[in-house]
Amino acid sequence: MDVKRLVIGTIVGALTLSATGYVIFGIVFPSFFTNFMNAGSATGVERQPLLLWAIALGMLSYSLLVTYAIWSRAGSFTVGAGMTTGAIVSFLLWFTADFILYGISNVGNLAGTITDPFLELVPGTIAGGVIAVVLARIR
């Protein structure tokens, strides 16, 4: 993979992850993170205002991981293969992060820790499909 594809796939993926993440967590399940992050003795931990630069860096890193995984699979520049790769990467990434944070902090609750990786399947799957389509079109 050349740098051009990697950069374009990462940017397109980050924008897709941000948009779909906003729909899932900002519109469809707006109270999910409020309830998830205000568990146990660690209440009121949601940052206000949000640090958008930190969120952007996280989304770029997440998207780079999905882009790299799609590129690494031979013949994965189809929508179906990209969606499958995006779903697998998304689920494993958030399962890992959520359970480690649950184990070392008192920020989230177990219900949210279990639910979040499944909700994250939606943005990851859609982003994987979009990234695959974009990578397939770049010459």
Structure description:
The chain is mainly alpha-helical and 139 residues long. It has six helices and no strands. It has one domain.
Radius of gyration: 16 Å
Question: Which quaternary structure do these chains form?
Answer: single chain
Give the uncertain stretches in residue-range form.
Answer: none
Q: How many helices? A: 6
- Identify the overall geometry: elongated
Find the count of extended strands (DSSP E, 2+ residues): 0
Summed up, the domain count is 1
**What summary fits the major beta sheet?**
none
Average pLDDT works out at 89
What share of residues is helical? over 70%
Secondary-structure element order, N to C: HHHHHH
SS-based class: mainly alpha
Please summarize what this structure is.
With 139 residues, the chain is an all-alpha fold. It contains six helices and no strands.
Give the SSE map.
Layout: H1 3-28, H2 32-37, H3 52-72, H4 79-104, H5 110-119, H6 121-137
Helix pairs in contact: 1-3, 1-6, 3-4, 3-6, 4-5, 4-6
What key attributes describe this structure?
139 residues; single chain; 6 helices; mainly alpha; elongated
